[in-house]
Structures are given as C-alpha cells and as structure tokens.
Design goal:
alpha/beta; 6-stranded parallel sheet; 2-enoyl-CoA Hydratase, Chain A, domain 1; 21 helices
C-alpha cells in the first residue's frame, strides 16, 4: 500500500511539475519583451540559425525531438533584408558565419545576387567557416574577406548526383512494380524496375550536372574575379584543398582563426556596448523583425499577388504540399478579386498528380482570359507537373540552375501478392468487370490491363504536349523532341524556349508590373498566416540569434543525416504503394552534393 501511495504521489507531483513548466513557457510567450535596439555602426550576422523556405513556415513540436520542422522565414524576406541593409546607415558590414540553410541552389543564387548588390555599395562582407564546400562557399565567395583556419579543409571536388535503385530489395520483399510510361527519359520508374540507371538517364543527368556546375563557376568567378575556366580546372585537378592551397589559389584571403576574425571586425565597426571583446552586431532574424513592413505601398492602385506553389502536387486539398483544389481555389480568388491586377506564381515543385496539375493549369488559363497578367517564377525545381502548371503563364522566369522540363508521364502499379503470400495473408476478390481491379495491390496486372493503362498514359502525355505547345507558342513536334521526360537546367530551358528569361522572384514581379504599365505597385505576398497555436510553436522553437550559435536538436529520435536521403526515398515508396496511379512527376529525388 505504501508503495502504491508513493507511486501515485510521484505521478501527481510529476504531472504538476510538467503543468507548471508549461504554464511558465506559455506565460513567457505572452509577456511582450522589448527587443534590444540595433546599434549604430554594427554588423549584420547571417549564420546557421537562419532557416528560409519559399513561403515560410511555423514549425511543429516534433522538432523538439529532432523529427519535426523548424520555423522558417520566407526567402524573399532574407533578400529584402539584405537589400534594406545596403541602405541602412546602421549596418556597416555583413558577416557570413558558417552557413545558413536557404533552400536549394536557385534560392541560394537569389541571396548571392542580393549580397552582390550589398557589396556594390562599398560596404564590407566578411565570411568565416572552419571548412568550406561548394555549397557553403557559393555565398561566401562574395565576401571581401574570407577567413579560414590554417588546418581547415576546402572541398571543391564538383557536384555528384545520387539516385537510389531498389528493384532488388523489392524483389526480395515480394513486391513487383508494373509500370507504364512515355518518353525516352521518363526515368521515374527506373528505381523500381532496374538495378541501375539506364544510359539515357545517365546522359541527361550528366548534362544537367554540367550545366549546374557551369552556373556555379560563372557566379563564383564573377564574385572572386577568377575565370570560370580556372575554377573548373581547380575542380578537376584538386578536389580537396588545404586552407593554404585555397589561400594560394585566391579562394580565401585570410588564414585566420575565429578570434582573429573577431578582431578584424572590431577594427571595422564599434564594439558591443556590453562586451568590448566583440563587435556591435545584429542577427538576421532580429533584423528582419524590425525592418519588415508589409504596409508599405498600400496606397498604390496596382496590386500584384504572389502565390506560392511549393512541394509535390496532390489531388484535392493539402495544407503541407500543393493540393490541386487548394491552389486552384487560391488562384480563383485572386482572379475574382477586383483589387488584384496581376499574379506571380512562385513554383518550387517536382510535380505529382497529373489531374491536380490540370486543375491548377485551368485556373492559370482563366487568369489570362480575365486579362490579369500572370508570371511564373521558378525556384529550385519546376519540373513535370511543376512545369505543367507553369506553361500557360504570360512569361516564365527561372534561375540558370533551376531544374525544369521533365515533360512526361508515367504510371506505377505495385503488386504485393507475393509478399502477402509470404506472410500468410490471402485476399479474395470479387469484381463486376474485367478491369475493376486494375488499381488493386493484390494481383499482377494482365497484358490487357496494362494496355488500358498505357493508353491512358499516352493520352495524358499527348495532352501535356498540347498544353506546352499552346502555352509556349512552340511547334508540337519540337516540344516532343525536347520532352520525353527529360530534365533541363534553367539555362538550357531558356535556349529551348521553355522559359523566357533568367532571374529571380523580383524579376518576375517587375515583369508583372510592366505588364500593368505600373511604375508603382503594392505586392501582396500570400504567405502562411499562423493561428495562435502555430505562433506559440514558432516562438517555442525560435532561438535568439548570436554568433556561432548552434541550433540545439535533441537527436534521440532523429534520423541520422547520412540516412536521411534513404529515409525520404522509403517514404516516397510508401506513398506510391498507398496510391498507385498516373503521375507527372520529376523522375527521381535528385540529390546533388
């Protein structure tokens, strides 16, 4: 009895403690804190506490145990903040510390271009990291002074794409994947039916990587005043460089430790009023909070709506990815809104459902019929279904390293009968027609069923070609030649007529304003709005930004970083097993390192 009472009392006490802690956290959230003022003559610090996505997010509590999403800010606010800092008399320099998480290659290019504009004002940019690779160095390359410790490693070995093939594993599990597809390069199905990539697939990836690397050497060469061919030579001859070798090659210009970089900054700006051993500074997250003003320009008569299409495309409504009905409704609302004069659709999507893509495209067509200019701005990827929803825009803008195209269609139909037999599960089927079970997971498709599916896939592919040819004003046969599921870089897509110009989100907004003949305009960004719980979650997961701050992650339940690509692929396979069908999707999860 004593043990029972002791256990009960301990449980009650633990619960009360948990409630007390939660109340303390909640009360702290609702108590408004007065943020410290931004000092004069200070440094804007951009470090690895900065998380950016296209439209921003509020995170979820799963992040506390390393398995959820952390809050992120919209990418365009990072760019706006850097541009604002260029004109802000309080900001004398920017410090790029370690590396921020700013999305993919195309997103990083928008930030890199903003940093180049900042540097053009004769303000200084300083960069420091213990090691550099091509991804982190891409932004650091714009710095006037790049610091690296003497024993640091400079990874400049080029880009590599890794694609997983699990046909062998699925055979051992007793899962057969039957497929229908159109196009020489529609290789989305290859991981399920081949032990390795086909020659056609290897060829297109090789050309894509070559184009992406050429974009990197061009941008970095411009920032460092080094010929792109010389950078390509370094990639081919060295791969891994010591800090001294990087210094000798002009990739960095200071062999120095963190404290030496601090003293360098103290010479440039004032010291911190509370600590004279460091420099006056403000973190980017804090700076964005103060400088963000969404009311600017409200009086302008011309209004441009920016709508985000980020993630895979699914049928129906979806709050996380792109729902055909969700995005269709949003486009319909701005079409019917008399105060909206033009629309920019920011696309960052590998595609997905063909039927959902068609729902979205229809609303894009209706926008043009309503004589509201519609411009597409492509992010890191706008391929397959992502290109489908873009092809009828008045203009399409992409970055040189955007992945686009992949104009093709495929069907995937799993058969898990062997697996069910192995585990002792039998499924009896009663059907009223010969094709009633064509979506069933429990039997092998007959040649007649596959023929029906192939006809369906062919019809969708032919429709895809029609839409691209009509939207882009291209000859249909010419579209077929560059389609067949092949992926292209933004640079190649421009040459082929699949996009109209190279640039970022602001370039697309400028095109929309020009279409309205508007010198002055207000931009209405349709970014996620938090409810009270989401705002609380974001506050709980936020971190006060300080130099060298490491974002704490309780990694007990987290997937190790090296296994995350495999984990994501397994989730993708699970999605296909749950919902077989016809897709207009990027051929693979392309992991470029």
């Amino acid at each position: 009895m004593k043990e029972f009472l002791r256990s009960t009392f301990a449980s009650i006490l633990g619960t009360l403690c948990a409630v007390f802690v939660l109340m303390f956290v909640v009360s702290g959230y609702f108590v408004e804190e007065i943020p410290p003022s931004i000092p004069e003559s200070c440094v804007l610090v951009i470090d690895d506490t900065v998380f950016a996505t296209e439209g921003g997010s509020f995170g979820d509590l799963g992040a506390l145990v390393g398995r959820g999403e952390y809050p992120s800010v919209p990418l365009r606010r990072v760019v706006d903040a850097i541009d604002h800092a260029a004109e802000d008399g309080r900001i004398d320099a920017i410090l790029l510390l370690n590396s921020a998480s700013l999305g993919g290659r195309a997103a990083a290019r928008e930030v890199q271009q903003a940093l180049m504009r900042f540097r053009a004002t004769d303000k200084k940019i300083i960069a420091y990291a213990p090691d550099y690779d091509m991804r982190s160095y891409y932004l650091a390359s714009v710095a006037d002074d790049i610091f690296m410790p003497p024993l640091g490693v400079f990874d400049m070995k080029g880009f590599a794409a890794e694609m997983m093939f699990y046909a062998g594993a699925m055979e051992k599990l007793g899962v057969e994947m039957q497929v229908t597809r159109v196009g020489k390069y529609k290789s989305a199905v290859e991981p399920f039916i081949l032990p390795q990539a086909s020659e056609a697939n290897l060829d297109q990836i090789d050309q894509l990587l070559t184009s992406v690397q050429r974009s990197w050497t061009t941008d970095v060469g411009e920032a460092r005043n080094i010929e792109a061919d010389e950078l390509q030579k370094m990639i081919g001859e060295g791969g891994i460089y010591s800090a001294q070798q990087a210094f000798d090659q002009g990739l960095i210009n200071h062999l120095g430790y963190y404290d030496q970089m601090i003293h360098h900054l103290i010479k440039l700006v004032d010291t911190d009023e509370h600590n004279t051993d460091t420099f006056a500074q403000v973190g980017l997250n804090r700076y964005m909070e103060e400088t963000y003003d969404d009311s600017e320009g409200h009086s302008h008569h011309t209004r441009i709506a920016v709508i985000y299409a980020e993630g895979e495309i699914y049928d129906g409504y979806d709050d996380v990815n792109i729902g055909g009905d969700s995005l269709g409704l949003e486009l319909r609302q701005v079409r019917l809104d008399p105060e909206i004069d033009a629309v920019v659709l920011r696309v960052n999507s590998p595609g997905g459902s063909a039927t959902a893509s068609e729902v979205i495209l229809r609303e894009m067509q209706l926008l043009r019929e309503a004589e509201k200019p519609v411009i597409v701005s492509m992010g890191d990827v706008a391929a397959s279904g992502g290109y489908w929803i873009s092809c009828h825009a008045d203009k399409i803008v992409a970055q040189p390293n955007t992945i686009t195209g992949s104009i093709g269609v495929f069907g995937m139909f799993p058969n898990i009968k062997k697996l069910m037999d192995e585990v002792g599960v039998h499924v009896d089927t009663i059907a009223t027609g010969p094709f009633a079970t064509w979506m069933s997971l429990y039997h092998q498709k007959t040649p007649e069923e596959l023929a029906v599916m192939q006809t369906y896939v062919d019809v969708i592919y032919e429709g895809f070609l029609d839409r691209v040819a009509g939207g882009r004003g291209l000859d249909r046969e010419a579209v077929h030649e560059i389609a067949q599921g092949r992926v292209w870089s933004g640079t190649a897509a421009l040459e082929l007529g699949l996009v109209d110009r190279l640039g970022g989100l602001q370039d697309a907004i400028t095109l929309a304003a020009d279409a309205c003949n508007a010198a002055h305009y207000f931009v209405d960004y349709h970014e996620a709005e938090a409810d009270s719980f989401e705002a609380f979650t974001a506050q709980l997961l936020s971190h006060e930004q300080e130099p060298v701050a490491q974002l704490p992650r309780l990694g007990g339940l987290a997937v190790p970083k090296t296994l995350q690509p495999l984990w994501e692929e397994m989730q993708r396979v699970g999605t296909i097993l749950q919902k077989p069908g016809v897709y207009a999707s990027l051929p693979y999860r392309l992991e470029i390192r």
